[in-house]
Amino acid sequence: MNVAARPRPASPCIGACAIDPANGLCAGCARTGDEIALWGSADAAIRARIWAELPARAAALGLPLRRLAWREGDLLDRMERLFRDAAGVFVVGIHGAVAEVMRAPDEEFQALRDGLVLTLRTRRAAIRLEAPAHLTAFELFRAGAAPLLALAVPAGRLGPDGPSALTALGPDTGALLPRDAGGARFDLGLGRRAARVSIRCAQALAARLAPHCGAPWPGHLDLIAADILAESPVRVVETPCIRAEVDAVIPPPGGRSPDGPHTHLLPELVRMGFDAPPSLALPKGYVLSALFHLA
């Protein structure tokens, strides 16, 4: 008889394990040594009680972050609730190249669930979140500011580096927004594992971009920037487990981003090579998929 393996319980561990002898708490997760030892065999009620005590302990210890218990369907429920309440902004991408997705309190939106996939969509932007067991939520604390929510994956879950030149990807069969759905998509060639930044466009713009495919990042921007600014095509930013799309006007150099959803592409910051903003420190071995800035 085959017996299904018992799933491992969600753990507060962040991989920074060190019991402080002064208070008996782990400097990474704020559990006691006894709680850590019994975690694997603890029932749901015990784990829930410990989870409930951790925020106060983390605050008392001054920890910079803590792992959240949110997993899979529960994680998606919470993300949907935050979006429904217009409680903040999703920031998807890498340092210097991001899509910001949010909605105004009175703005209509759709929320669609298909198993462990959640799609949130307004007229101007959309985000699709997949929630496998390895997608992990963290709360990051900042002095004098609201905490940040970070969704991250183990570095081993990343694929290979993306292309480092303008690259035609063919028709976009996974479009979330209606504009130019199924149209041509072009990878801007940032050459990174943690994020892919691309544009989706109609045939006329695709014909103007195609001759420049193979031109390396970021030099190709001098060749294609005028056409992209003139058309403001849909921008698509993909990170592990997340796809974001923005359909909004791209401001000219030195111009102001529009209110609401928008994108940023700043080659001088991309060149620094950070996946997350350098002021934020995720646990070792995790790579950022998205931040949620609480309003």
TrEMBL record:
This is Fe-S protein YdhL (DUF1289 family). InterPro entries: DUF1289, DUF6925. Pfam families: DUF1289, DUF6925. The lineage of its organism: Bacteria, Pseudomonadati, Pseudomonadota, Alphaproteobacteria, Hyphomicrobiales. It comes from Xanthobacter agilis.
